[in-house]
């Protein structure tokens, strides 16, 4: 099994973060709008969690998996070409 060299993953992550920052700096209005939408998503997830917490333990686990699957599917469908 291939294993990444120590610190390589961190270097890749830092490199990608720098590129994201560059895009955000090049497009500050877009970055601001995205940040606002991300806050809306967090708020929606908090409301979902509040509803799911009303269920029994087993039901909560099932609904959590269902919601996570839905979110993942929609993200793939709408964000990935």
Class inferred from helices and paired strands: mainly alpha
Average of the residue pLDDT scores: 93
Give me the strand/helix succession.
HHH
Helix content: over 70%
- Portion in strands: under 5%
Q: Rg from C-alpha positions?
A: 18 Å
Distance between the termini: 31 Å
In total, the number of strands is 0
Number of helices: 3
Shape: extended
Query: Largest sheet, if any?
Result: none
Uncertain parts = none
Question: What would your notes on this structure say?
Answer:
The structure is a single chain. The chain has about 80 residues and is mostly helical. The chain has a domain at about 25-80. It has three helices and no strands.
What key phrases describe this protein's structure?
extended
How do the helices and strands line up, and which of them pair or pack?
Layout: H1 8-26, H2 28-52, H3 57-79
